[in-house]
Amino acid sequence: MEDKLDYDYDSPPSWHYPVRQTLGAVLIAANRPADAETVYRKYLKRFPENDRSLFGLAKSLKAQGKTQEAQVVQKRFATAWKNAEFSLTLEQL
User: Fold this and answer.
1) 5, 33, 86, 90: which sits with the fewest CB atoms below 10 Å from its CB?
2) Which pLDDT tens digit goes with each residue over 72-85?
């Protein structure tokens, strides 16, 4: 349902809670990081530098042992999150 919303024209957005980010975090917790990677990559196609999705993607890559790719994504996350006033955890996604 969320994917069918037109974010380009809705202001404020019709759907305030990004379900895909939570799904990715649940998949990581369920020891399914490859599935979580797919979920985060799909969200990032629509919102390329979304900080929370970058965070989740980095965690999913790290959990799969894709260390170098995780580091690249982690740097993108750090840039996107640089002005935040708190640290992010998977539980907050």
Assistant:
1) 86
2) 999 999 999 999 99
- Output DSSP code: residue 7: T
Report the number of secondary-structure helices (H) and strands (E) in the chain: 4, 0
Residues 15-68: tens digit of each pLDDT: 667 788 999 999 999 999 999 999 999 999 988 999 999 999 999 999 999 999
Euclidean distance between CA atoms 17 and 76, whole angstroms: 22
CATH number of the domain encompassing residue 43: 1.25.40
DSSP 8-state code for residue 90: G
| Predicted structure pTM score | 0.84
* Tally of domains in the chain: 1
From 16, 52, 21, select the one nearest 36 (Cα to Cα).
21
